[in-house]
Write a structure and sequence with these properties.
- This protein is mostly beta strands.
- Helices cover 3% and strands 29% of the residues.
- The protein has a domain of 104 residues: Tumour Suppressor Smad4, CATH 2.60.200.
- The protein has a six-stranded antiparallel β-sheet with strand order 4-3-13-12-9-10, with no helix packed on it. Strands 6-5-7-8-11 form a five-stranded mixed β-sheet, with no helix packed on it. Strands 1-2 form a two-stranded antiparallel sheet.
- This is Signal peptide protein.
């Protein structure tokens, strides 16, 4: 350690002079607010730049904002496209685990289950559930039926204490196990109702 004339200690292997005192005879200039200078305050900058740039940039292209291109944006489910809404088709209710008593809405088509915020069914507080795609619950509006599928996550999925390794039909009051969490399935759509 080295001590400067002002009494500050610094590592001479890292710094050639005291980092607290700074460097003598250096003119850094004044700080300019984000967004640049305001001409209304009388600030003036005289830049004498002689730049000869050839950036080899192509022509400007129009961005298709009307949604008529090949990738129109977010995928829209069948029911939402037909009816303008994405209604609840069923629920999962946590009966065991950190989220006990909480309900999760099931929407039409695929519902990805995990503990990540980007999952349609996000189960917090159970780190034995994969962050993404631990399991999938699907509702098929054409057949008015529900299925549970294993996801791409590391953890296993159980339906009524049997491992789910292929798509399986879900019925009222079925019990789903993910990590340390158990969920009970309650359909809204079925033989008596359909959107």
């Amino acid at each position: 350690m080295k001590r400067c004339e002002s009494g500050h200690y610094f590592d001479s292997n890292k710094y050639s002079s005291c980092p607290v005192c700074g460097v003598d005879d250096i003119d850094i200039g004044s700080t300019i607010a984000k967004g640049g200078l305001s001409r209304s305050k009388g600030n003036h900058i005289d830049l004498d730049l002689d730049l000869d740039l050839d950036l080899n940039v192509g022509p400007t292209r129009q961005i298709n904002k009307s949604g008529q291109g090949h990738d129109e944006g977010a995928t829209v489910g069948v029911i939402r496209k037909e009816q303008g809404i994405d209604p609840v088709v069923g629920w999962l209710v946590c009966i065991e685990g950190s989220e006990r008593g909480r309900d999760y809405r099931i929407r039409s088509e695929k519902n990805f289950i995990g503990r990540g915020d980007n999952m349609q069914i996000c189960i917090k507080g159970d780190d034995s559930i994969s962050r993404e795609n631990h399991s999938i619950i699907s509702y098929n509006p054409k057949t008015n039926s529900f299925k549970i599928l294993p996801g791409t996550g590391k953890g296993l999925v159980y339906l009524n204490d049997d491992e789910v390794d292929t798509p399986r039909e879900l019925k009222s009051f079925d019990e789903i196990g993910l990590g340390k969490t158990k969920l009970k399935f309650f359909p809204c759509c079925g033989e008596n109702f359909k959107w």
